[in-house]
Structure formats: structure tokens, C-alpha cells
């Protein structure tokens, strides 16, 4: 059986391989994870590290390092071909022409889950947005959140960790570029007089939607030229409202400049005291919406 080794290297992140074995590591820097070695099961908390940018692992105690294939080989004592075959069948078993992010369109989700209830998402809303807890697959033990484009096409799933010690907190497919997409963009109609809130996170956005406002999420605290171009095409007024922490305030300044260059009608709203949009009440948001129509 032919195995496309380069394709697997390119498309499958190390975090997905670790997730198959139920392995969680802690964040040890912007692009690095660390923990005890899951191969030889040592107790050194820094012995095993993953470089997210290079998609490589290394055990500094005993096992050495390498790619996703090396990890499976060492973990299960397999040959290179056996490891490659296992990975191929795991991630491409439905069609040899599908990428891992397209395969997630078939995952089964639990729409009623304590974590979703805690975040204010009932089963009806979860079903509408197709957000749910995944028991298996790439998003195992995570809340799977679909990212859909303007043409209502599923692009990818993001897996949100439900435990405070699980990393990364948000798991995206390796080839997915979140700066080219906006969460909930498929539900934003063009040329409506109603302003659209621009927020950072999925649950900030869902909170606003639940209260009846229009909103999109950047899936981070920075806005890209790609995202601005999408927003510009909609011909809407916007309310930029990022988190009230230091990172959010700094990003607001940068975003304001980019938005100004694109001549978008946009009212910036600065939140204070580490406040997130998810915590804001309807009356406050309604005032912002009303004010923005005169902005």
C-alpha cells in the first residue's frame, strides 16, 4: 500500500498524534509543549518536549526525538512502515483524498455537556452551531467548534480543551490558518444597518449571538488583512471589542490603525479590568449597538 509520507508530515501535527494516546502536555512557551516522557514514562516534568513550529518531539532523558512517525515507532515498537500505515489509516481512512480537517465533518458530537452549560450554551444552541463534546478522533476529550466560511462550507474544527491542565487550550489543524477566517462569518448578512461586534474568542461571540447581536470572532487577539478584506466586502458597521487584559488593549491599538486604513466604519470599545465580552450584559451591549449606529 502506498503511503504519502510527505503529505502526512505536512498535514498532521504532533499534537494530534499525542491526542490519539490521550497524552496532554503543558505549555512551555509560545511554540513549545513539555512534560514527562510518554514513551519511557519517566517522572522528569521537562524531559519530553514538542516543538510546535517544527512539528518535532524530543526526549532529553532516554528516547531521543523525531517526527510523528518516530513517535509512533518508539511508542508502539513498530517499523517505519508499520507506523506510517497506522497513521495513514487513522487520519485518512474515509478517503485518500480528504485532509484531516475535512474528515472532522463526520465526527459525532455530544451537544449537551457540562462544560457547554457552564459557558451558557444550551443543547438547542449547541446543535444549531454544531458545537459539541467529542469522545474520539482528532478532537477527543475536547469541545469541537466548527469553522465555516461565507459559502457555508466547513473548513475545519477547533478543539477547545475542557481541563485547565490540557494544552494547547485551542487545537487547530496544522495547515489551518486562522488569520484567513472569521468564526460565524456565514451568519453575517451584507448591507444590514445592524452593527457587527468583532471579538476575540468563540465563546465571546456565542454569548453575543445568544443575546441577539451580530458578532464574529477573530480566534485570537489580532486582526489580519485577510479578515479585514472579508469584513469590507460585507458593507457593515462594526464594533471592535477585544478583551480587557494587557494583550487585548495592545491589540486594540494595532487593529484601530489597520481598520482606519481600510476605511471601515468601526467603533472601538475598550474594556477594563481584564473584562471579557462573554461577561457583558444585554443592556450594556444594547447601548453600544445603538451608539454605533450614530458613529
Q: Helix share of residues?
A: 25-40%
Tell me the number of structural domains. Answer: 3
SSE order, one letter for each helix or strand: HHEEEEEHHHEHHEEEEEHEHEHEH
Estimated structural class: alpha+beta
Radius of gyration: 21 Å
Shape, please? elongated
Question: Top keywords for this entry?
Answer:
295 residues; alpha+beta; DNA Primase, Chain A; DNA primase DNAg catalytic core, N-terminal domain; Dna Topoisomerase Vi A Subunit, Chain: A, domain 2; 3 domains; five-stranded antiparallel beta sheet; 11 helices; 33% helix; elongated
What would you say this structure looks like, in words?
With 295 residues, this protein is α+β, with helices and mostly antiparallel strands. It folds into 3 domains: 5-93, Zinc finger, CHC2-typedomain (DNA Primase, Chain A), CATH 3.90.580; 105-176, DNA primase, catalytic core, N-terminal domain (DNA primase DNAg catalytic core, N-terminal domain, Alpha-Beta Complex); 185-292, Dna Topoisomerase Vi A Subunit, Chain: A, domain 2. It has 11 helices and 14 strands. The protein has helices spanning 5-11, 14-20, 68-76, 80-91, 100-103, 114-118, 123-129, 202-210, 225-234, 246-261, 282-292; strands at residues 26-27, 32-35, 48-51, 56-59, 64-66, 109-110, 132-134, 142-148, 154-161, 170-171, 196-199, 214-217, 238-240, 266-268. The strands form 3 sheets. Strands 1-2-3-4-5 form a 5-stranded antiparallel sheet, with helices on one face. Strands 6-7-8-9-10 form a 5-stranded antiparallel sheet. Strand 7 (132-134) and strand 8 (142-148) form a beta hairpin. The longest helix has 16 residues, at 246-261. The radius of gyration is 21 Å and the shape is elongated. The model is unreliable at 94-105 (pLDDT under 50).
Amino acid at each position: 500500500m502506498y503511503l504519502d509520507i510527505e503529505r502526512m508530515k505536512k498535514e498532521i501535527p504532533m499534537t494530534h498524534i499525542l491526542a490519539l494516546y490521550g497524552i496532554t502536555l503543558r505549555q512551555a512557551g509560545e511554540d513549545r509543549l513539555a512534560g514527562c516522557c510518554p514513551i519511557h514514562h519517566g517522572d522528569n516534568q521537562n524531559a519530553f518536549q514538542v516543538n510546535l513550529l517544527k512539528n518535532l518531539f524530543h526526549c532529553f532523558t532516554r528516547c531521543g526525538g523525531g517526527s510523528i512517525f518516530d513517535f509512533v515507532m518508539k511508542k508502539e515498537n513498530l517499523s517505519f512502515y508499520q507506523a506510517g500505515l497506522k497513521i495513514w489509516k487513522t487520519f485518512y481512512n474515509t478517503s485518500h483524498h480528504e485532509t484531516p480537517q475535512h474528515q472532522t465533518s463526520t465526527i459525532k458530537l455530544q451537544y449537551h455537556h457540562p462544560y457547554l452549560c457552564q459557558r451558557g450554551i444550551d443543547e438547542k444552541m449547541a446543535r444549531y452551531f454544531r458545537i459539541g463534546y467529542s469522545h474520539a478522533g482528532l478532537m477527543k476529550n475536547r469541545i469541537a467548534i466548527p469553522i465555516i466560511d461565507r459559502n457555508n462550507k466547513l473548513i475545519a474544527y477547533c478543539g477547545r480543551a475542557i481541563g485547565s491542565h490540557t494544552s494547547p487550550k485551542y487545537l487547530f489543524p496544522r495547515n489551518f490558518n486562522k488569520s484567513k477566517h472569521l468564526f460565524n462569518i456565514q451568519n453575517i448578512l451584507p448591507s444590514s444597518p445592524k452593527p457587527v461586534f468583532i471579538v476575540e474568542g468563540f465563546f465571546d461571540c456565542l454569548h453575543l449571538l445568544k443575546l441577539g447581536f451580530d458578532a464574529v470572532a477573530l480566534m485570537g487577539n489580532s486582526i489580519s488583512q485577510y479578515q479585514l478584506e472579508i469584513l469590507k466586502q460585507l458593507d457593515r458597521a462594526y464594533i471592535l471589542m477585544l478583551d480587557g487584559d494587557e494583550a487585548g488593549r495592545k491589540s486594540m491599538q494595532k487593529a484601530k490603525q489597520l481598520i482606519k486604513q481600510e476605511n471601515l466604519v468601526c467603533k472601538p470599545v475598550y474594556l477594563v479590568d481584564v473584562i471579557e465580552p462573554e461577561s457583558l450584559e444585554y443592556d450594556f451591549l444594547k447601548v453600544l449597538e445603538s451608539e454605533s449606529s450614530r458613529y
